[in-house]
């Protein structure tokens, strides 16, 4: 099994110990025909590949792909990691993880965006919003598709990892508009605006498979409605601990998107900021693609959309 990512901190370590996602499991044999399990342990920093000697240790049973495990390994004389312990993580170990720590960095085709996602999520002061993000994004049935999905099939951000990049653009730009127009707005409202922008298109994860390919839901369902479904566990938590934030998020997601099927008018500026940031992010990406095949100015088309850039004035001789 190929090691897909190697964070510098991990590569220099002589040992590792912690709670990770199990992202690889393969039976192998060495030159002496000794059976091993080649295991890959992943988190938001990178991953460890380690070998478990089946002659000396029982194979961890009832642990599947993307399950959370607590593992320890040391580097052998050959430079490879050897598993010393591996078991399913208990509830206390999972609860002790930082926000989004268990997301496998190696699954994301745009690592810079992934690192920004994790660092920003961990910087949120609201423990309720951090827990909401954990319950929405760290689900085994959502995390692969969120990290791999395109922003669209043939429109904006139509590449693997495009959904994450678009979501971050919307979240950051919405907060920038909020700070510019309402500089006295509380930190909690700013963080709520970020989460609203980040998750505004999370329903699209239902319309792609784990590798970012469109599925039946892409043709049959509106991703706007699926956003509420994708966020159900996070919203249920907020309903118990921060009900006003839960209502704010529902309101933004049901009136903000330019193409949303909902007719509820915006009753707060956060909804407008997310809506405008959504449209702006899409247009910026489409405009860049439209002019990538031309000289960079004049008229250009992308699908049905027409774009225009004025030709820059010629430099005057000195």
UniProtKB/TrEMBL annotation:
Domain HD/PDEase, chain residue ranges per copy: 159-292
SUPFAM superfamilies with a match to the protein in the record: HD-domain/PDEase-like
The protein's name: TraI domain-containing protein
Superkingdom assignment: Bacteria
Gene3D superfamilies in alphabetical order: 1.10.3210.40
UniProt cross-references to InterPro entries, sorted A to Z: HD/PDEase_dom (IPR003607), HDIG_dom (IPR006675), Unchr_helicase_relaxase_TraI (IPR011119)
């Amino acid at each position: 099994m190929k090691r897909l990512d190697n964070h510098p901190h991990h590569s220099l370590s002589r040992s590792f110990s912690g709670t990770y996602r199990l992202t690889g499991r393969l039976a192998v044999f060495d030159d002496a025909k000794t059976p091993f399990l080649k295991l890959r342990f992943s988190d938001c920093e990178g991953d460890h590949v380690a070998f478990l000697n089946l002659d000396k240790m029982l194979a961890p049973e009832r642990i599947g792909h993307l399950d959370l495990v607590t593992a320890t390994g040391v580097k052998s004389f050959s430079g490879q990691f050897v598993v010393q312990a591996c078991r399913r993580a208990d509830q206390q170990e999972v609860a002790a993880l930082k926000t989004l720590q268990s997301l496998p960095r190696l699954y994301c085709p745009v690592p810079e965006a992934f690192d920004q996602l994790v660092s920003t999520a961990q910087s949120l002061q609201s423990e309720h919003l951090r827990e909401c993000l954990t319950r929405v994004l760290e689900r085994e049935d959502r995390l692969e598709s969120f990290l791999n999905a395109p922003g669209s099939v043939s429109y904006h951000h139509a590449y693997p990892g495009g959904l994450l990049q678009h979501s971050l653009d919307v979240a950051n730009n919405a907060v920038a508009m909020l700070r510019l127009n309402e500089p006295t707005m509380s930190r909690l409202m700013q963080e709520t605006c970020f989460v609203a922008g980040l998750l505004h298109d999370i329903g699209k994860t239902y319309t792609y498979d784990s590798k970012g390919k469109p599925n039946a839901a892409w043709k049959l369902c509106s991703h706007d409605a699926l956003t509420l479904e994708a966020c159900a566990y996070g919203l249920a938590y907020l309903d118990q601990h921060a009900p006003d934030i839960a209502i704010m998020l529902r309101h933004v997601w049901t009136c903000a998107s330019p193409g949303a099927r909902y007719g509820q008018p915006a009753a707060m500026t956060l909804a407008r900021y997310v809506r405008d940031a959504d449209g702006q992010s899409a247009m910026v990406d489409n405009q860049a693609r439209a002019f990538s095949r031309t000289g960079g100015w004049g008229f250009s088309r992308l699908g049905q959309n027409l774009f225009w850039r004025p030709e820059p004035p010629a430099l005057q001789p000195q």
